[in-house]
């Protein structure tokens, strides 16, 4: 359905608004390749600012890439003219994190859903009304909701409207950019279940962008992990959750460290902050935080290499990186937001250092 090849997006950063001097380039997406099959969900995960949304927007051609290509149903859409791209959009849709911001507050839900039908010449008048009613039903809303405005709905209901709007044109692919991140946990599950059932019913393909490993586990077939503009690992869900090979994926998925300093529980400790995408580290971008970094990592960019059965890893030394014990992913508490998990690693490291120091001090006295 979708083939993304060597996709690159660099944003220039300028000083001054009008005749600004270019200070540098944010390498938001840097040589990213993956594909999505019909009816498949590929989850794209990574820390804030790693380039997930930019990847989604490039696929939708909401912005032009610096280089690389996007093929949709075998057709290169990277350089399509505006009118041709508008026609193509009928087949690919996007759902955003904040449905309220993406819905026009002055339009009723009925008008919002009828708009794409008219723009793409799908239905007008009474057939559009019938289609609106059908769409509301498909996403679990009522016919009378067509007369209401976005502010009269809850967050979960608004996301249902966003989904109905995306479905209006019968798309093949939907880019879901953190569609449940802003919702309460109980509502998240409902929306994810709705997306899954719609996928089954209409044969949809999803690129599902997320921070949350628990949600991704439920929704995805394969998972791609992104770090500072690059894909570092891609594998089917089962493999990625049970046997991550890239040190960064391992850090996100390793078992929660035990508080006991004597315990040799499996844990990965990330050192240092996320570097800036404006001047990413040379070689492997993860080398400033990686436990296993060697000299080669500082100079040579690791390519994604095949680790068997479609599992690909961008690490020079993944064969010698120890296999870790992963967290119990059945427990959502173990799969919280990345920032929370990474902060937990940092805190565990500090605790363990403090414990070691105090143990050293008591031996000395
Ligand atoms: N229009 C823009 N101009 C300049 N820089 C941009 C622009 N859009 C995104 N960026 C930068 O590109 C990088 C990737 O941003 P992006 O929004 O794709 O990240 P993300 O992974 O979706 O993050 P989040 O999880 O916070 O949504 C960031 O460093 C961001 O600051
Ligand atoms: S290439 Fe080197 S720095 Fe990068 S993840 Fe592998 S071991 Fe770590
Ligand atoms: Mg984003």
Features:
binds iron/sulfur cluster, 12 helices, 365 residues, globular, 4-stranded antiparallel sheet, 35% helix, alpha/beta, Rossmann fold
**SS class:** alpha/beta
CATH architectural arrangement of the largest domain? 3-Layer(aba) Sandwich
The succession of helices and strands, N to C, reads: EEEHEEHEHHHHEHEHEEHHHEEH
The CATH superfamily of the largest domain is known as P-loop containing nucleotide triphosphate hydrolases
Shape: globular
Strand tally is 12
Strand order of the largest sheet: 6-7-8-3-9-10-12-11
- Tell me the count of domains: 2
Span of the ends, CA to CA = 68 Å
Biggest sheet layout? 8 strands, mixed
Strand content: 15-25%
Radius of gyration equals 23 Å
The CATH C-level class name of the largest domain? Alpha Beta
Helix content: 25-40%
Characterization of this structure:
The protein is of the alpha/beta class and 365 residues long. The protein has 2 domains: 1-91 and 172-365, 3-Layer(aba) Sandwich (Rossmann fold), CATH 3.40.50; 103-170, no CATH class. 35% of the residues lie in helices and 21% in strands. It is built from 12 helices and 12 strands. It has helices at 52-59, 82-89, 99-102, 109-119, 125-138, 155-167, 185-202, 213-219, 237-242, 247-253, 295-299, 338-364, and strands at residues 2-15, 21-36, 41-45, 67-72, 75-76, 92-95, 173-177, 205-210, 222-227, 230-236, 305-306, 312-313. The strands form 2 sheets. Strands 6-7-8-3-9-10-12-11 form an 8-stranded mixed β-sheet, sandwiched between helices. A 4-stranded antiparallel β-sheet has the order 2-1-4-5. Helix 4 (109-119) packs across helix 5 and helix 6 packs parallel to helix 7 (185-202). The protein is globular, with a radius of gyration of 23 Å. The model has no long low-confidence stretch (mean pLDDT 85). The protein binds adenosine-5'-triphosphate, iron/sulfur cluster and magnesium ion. Residues 11, 26, 28, 46, 48-54, 277 line the site of adenosine-5'-triphosphate.
